[in-house]
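Box 3.1 — From sequence to structure: 4-hydroxy-tetrahydrodipicolinate synthase
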Amino acid sequence: MLAIDTALRPFGTLMPAMVTPFTADGAVDYKQAAALANKLVDDGCDGILVTGTTGETSTLTDEENLGMFQAVLEAVGGRARVIAGTGTNDTRHSISLSQRAAALGVHGLLIVTPYYNKPSQAGIQAHFEAIADSTELPVMLYDIPGRAGVPIETETIIKLAGHPRITALKDAKADFTATSRVLANTDLDVYSGDDGLTLPLMAAGAVGLVSVSAHVAPQQFRALIDAAAAGDFATARKIHFALDPVIRATMGHVQGAVAVKQILKWQGILSNSVVRLPLVEPGEAEIAMIKADLAEAGMDL
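Predicted structure (token representation):
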């Protein structure tokens, strides 16, 4: 069993942004979700992010989101942190979903920048603070301007870090200079939100990773994070380079959930690779590229 210092790291250090398995006819498969969560924790993950971007949260109903939180809590809640993705582009909706998730017993919340609306920085700050005020749970900000349409500016992050329950940042901005300023000027636990930037961000003081590719190679990512945390950057570099083709396979050709589900099917971990529209399964050309990257990593599937 993994031992987590919840006072020091309330979100853990290696969190897969877990896919949401579906049945062949497109219903949420809670049994497969529980089995996948157990395998990920067995393989070294000390946190599970449920229904984030890779969990296809935007195509799930509230009841399906809550069902996923419950299924993963029951499966691994006693030995890993279960983090609920409850952010939407509607503050009131996000508050409601966050409160319902808190009532189930999740350990923390991941809140994405409100997307599509393109609010001002004042609106973004008010959105996060309103959600953080609505429960007693720790909150991880999720800065991903490529999907949200707007960034959380560095100055806004620094202001938000003053909220007692905003304790972490998932950084998917790919702006090392901006993230360095956050690390230098806040006490936030910063997590790489880009698998390929885990090593440089941890070298600057980040504490871990919220990952897509960790579905495919969790033990290697565990070793990378542990080596970087111990200051063993020679070992961390070797693992970083070895993981490069894995990251390309999962992130370089199709949307992350699409690639991961396909690979987990090849690995025999999921029974199918079903995704919900508007996502579609990879075509032959995309499959060939994914398999070529995996073969480069020594994973012939």
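Summary of the box: Residues 1-7 have pLDDT under 50 and may be disordered.
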